Amino acid sequence: MTDTPDPKLQTGAETAPNADAIAQALRSRIQKSEIAPGEWLREVRLCSEFGVGRSTVRRALRALADDGLIELEENRGARVSATTVEEVFDLYEVRAALYGLAARFACLRASDAAVRRILGKIDRLLNDAESGAPAEQIIEVSESIFSEMSAFGSADAQRMTEAVRRKTRFHFSYVALAINANGPGPYQHWRDVRTGLIERDPDKASQAARDILYFMQGEVARIMLARGPRARTEPVAASQKEPSPRRRTAGGKSK
Known about the structure:
Blueprint: H1 19-31, E1 40-41, H2 43-50, H3 54-67, E2 70-73, E3 77-80, H4 85-109, H5 112-130, H6 135-150, H7 155-170, H8 174-180, H9 187-199, H10 202-226
């Protein structure tokens, strides 16, 4: 892991970053592959790098664990997760279903004023894409649109959507690469969502929203395969596992 301070965190010689800022800095490094899957994030080292106490670092690591970016292991620490193509595919499949529902709920339940607000954001997204705005900016607008549409679902639906979106948004740096790739991108699907909202056609809006996620699912999986990600492995059979060390009795004999 690099020890170079993140310039975004250098806001002043006496200003220490908070847990959110540290989490965002580490999240960015993981997404850029500057910290490799399986690498350990040591609290002492992070405290020294960012100039903060352990409680702040632990809050940052818990945020990354909630995103699915790292795994917290008792008595061992935090380790960067290694995601498989299968996991990416499944998460996007679930997210596509939930976002299709969000678009349907917006068509059926949103007020005219709320629909106009969503349409304005879709127009902004399309304008940003046409002008070559950074992928991160487009992703932010996209997330804002889906947040507005999801708000018309039940509390349970909102909780499920939020749980899945954290993993798909922050876990995969490949999303930005997919948006920046040559080709039409998912923007025709966004235009179809727009049309569905205007016409109050829940089937059209729902299918278009799902198609946006299906596009990203295919592109992210393609990029991951090109980079040679870990494949899912079958659990090791009990007979193939390394035998546990023999315990000794008080008399010194092995059991």
